[in-house]
Sequence to fold (468 residues):
Amino acid sequence: MTSFVIEADGGSRGNPGPAGYGAVVKDAADGQVLVETAEAIGAQTNNVAEYRGLIAGLQSLLALAGDGAVVEVRMDSKLVIEQMAGRWKIKNEGLRPLALEAGALARRLRVTWQWIPREKNKDADRLANEAMDAAAKGRPWQPSGSVGTGSAGTGTARTGSAGTGSAGTGTARTGSAGTGSTAAGSARTGSPLTGPSEARELGLSDASAAGVSGRPATAAAPLAAQDSLLDLIDADAVSSGQDVSSGQAAASGTAGTGWRAPTTVATSLLLLRHGETPLSVERRFSGLGDPELTPNGIAQAEAAAARLSREPYGIQVVVSSPLKRARATAEIVAARLGLEVVVDEGLREADFGDWEGHTFTEIQRRWPDALAAWLADPSAAPPGGESFGVAARRVQATGDRLVERYEGRTVLAVSHVTPIKMLLQSALLAPLAALYRMHLDLAALSLIEYYADGPAVVKAFNDTSHLR
Fold:
């Protein structure tokens, strides 16, 4: 499994005074720089700048590698390292919000904390000083090398080659031809896809359980307060005495669209991603390859089956991708429901061609130009593979066919990251680029309801409460 190093630093010329931070994400195996990010942050203290550098580094890694990535965080700030490791108390209340934010990000990763002397933190220190120097001249920090097509923000990031980096809060830039993204901001320009975590989420690593590949997927926030996917009453509205009857999702599948009262019976499409596979554990691209479920993947499917066999689901049809990992998941659920599995070729994963079975880092090194093009444009295909644009047309036709064939019924579709996200994207009338902003766990449930006299309504997304 790929592991990473984050080196972060921050400084202030005056303490407090003009301040900036820098952070670097590296491949732990060979020290290759994957992401650099820096930003001037106005008049702040050294400690605030150091925490901001840490936060930017953690955000960049999450955008790059997803939840569950293994990382050693290295800083020359003894204070930050000891506080984050839990050995020192946070006495400065001004730092507490930053420490809480950093801690929340760190809990999504597998982190070890390591203090290093300043002379071993030269990359992050250089970036922080570059950001402060640029601010002193009234300019934003600009990385060296050609500028990629990132998204707008206040800071900047760059990557070493294929352009998979992401700034924590700023504009991503690349050393040659790739793209970047904000980990905590809205995309505004350029390419919609920026790093391996977003790419994996599209099915490129259908292998990855939202980045947490070796354990049941619970990283994304499930609908924890719900008893079921169909129980979507607004608790605040209930407590305030508002009339919520028109917004309630009924177990019978006759829920209304938005705030309107129901006018037709909905066709309910429950979307279940398959369970874990060996490629999930190793975070490898998994498209039309056909790995089996792991024992953990079988357990995930059984947990979903136990949930879906109870009220209020009332599933009447089970359809599945033909690929083994989805078919096995579907059969476990169908057996619990006493139903047969209907196989639909249109629910298969996207074809990743020559990239099948490779890690993102392997692809970045072997096919840097093709990867950069693929990350920048949904119409670009992997060598010998299928573009997301082509896959989207297939999936849309499949969704339309299922809704028409099973009108007014509750259907469980067992599929993969890419098709599920495309169905959700289409239901939301969102552009294809929206796929790159979704996070989907292994064995997660989502729900779309389709109305003959109104729009499709996304009722739930990435619900993994049955895996807890």
